[in-house]
């Protein structure tokens, strides 16, 4: 299918997905990258990949609805069928939820429903859990609350956030691609 990737940061998940498409491991086409942070590194990655980017700040719109309408217009123009969130640090509002029912997917760096929201890895470290992980799920109006599609567990490297994070990101990149492939080939 034709899909859009939404990201606000480094875009390593975008990169992994793009690489999987290029390698023929994921059947789909990234039609657009959407970011709310025009100077995020994902914009550079998309440029190098030759993928069109819509970089617009919500603060330049009168409301969340107006911001999402602008995105929706572009998605329609490009006939985008699915939205893949990859480090997009905003809640999806009703405009996009209604336009893409059960067609928006997210990845989150914890075993949901534990540690939703920001800095899930930091939350896991603070709580001293020994196992954390990664969740791929459908997006609904809540914060990291939609139906779960896939999970993988990862051992925390005690006292070492950096190493734990590295492990999590490596698993994310693999799990996201695999899960999307499964979802789209059934
Ligand atoms: C990932 O850990 C993702 O699970 C979370 O935000 C991070 C984005 O990383 N939602 P990147 O921008 O894909 O490198």
Automatic annotation (TrEMBL):
GO terms for molecular function: phosphoribosylglycinamide formyltransferase activity. Gene3D superfamilies: Formyl transferase, N-terminal domain. It is an enzyme of class 2 (transferase). Its EC number is 2.1.2.2. (6R)-10-formyltetrahydrofolate binds at residues 64, 89-92, 106. Keywords: Purine biosynthesis, Transferase. This is Phosphoribosylglycinamide formyltransferase. The lineage of its organism: Bacteria, Bacillati, Bacillota, Bacilli, Bacillales.
